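Supplementary Note 2. Why include the ligand at all?

Several targets in our set were suspected to adopt different conformations when bound, so apo predictions alone were not considered sufficient. For every target with a known small-molecule partner we therefore ran a joint prediction. The input for calcium ion is given below.
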Amino acid sequence: MSGPARTDLEKCMELLIKTFHEHAGTDSNSSTLSRDELTNLVKTQLPRFVPKDKECEQKFLDFVDCSGDGEVDFLEYVTALACLTALYHGAFTKCGQKRSSK
Ligand SMILES: [Ca+2]
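The joint prediction is reproduced in C-alpha cell form.
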C-alpha cells in the first residue's frame, strides 16, 4: 500500500487482523477461531487476561462467542477486544488518578 506512512493506530488494526488469522488458521476452518484456537490466542497474546479457573474460562469463552455456535468469527473477536480495551482503559485511568492524587 502506498501513501503516507502507517500510523500506530493503523499498525494496531493490522496487528489485530494478522493475529486473528494466524490463530484461526491452525485447524480446518481458517475463517473462525475454535475454542482451542481462542484459548491459545488469549494465553499467548493476552496473558494478563487469562481466566483464573475453568469456570471463569468457560464464561469468558461464552462471552466472546456471542452467537453460541462454538466458533468465534472476526466480528466477535474484535468486539471482545474492544470490550477488554474499555476495561483496560478504565483500570489504566483509575491507576493514573491514584498516582496523580498523591
Ligand atoms: Ca479456525
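The chain is about 65% helix and 5% strand. Residues 24, 27, 29-30, 32-34, 37 surround calcium ion (CB under 6 Å). Comparable summaries for the other entries are listed in the accompanying table.
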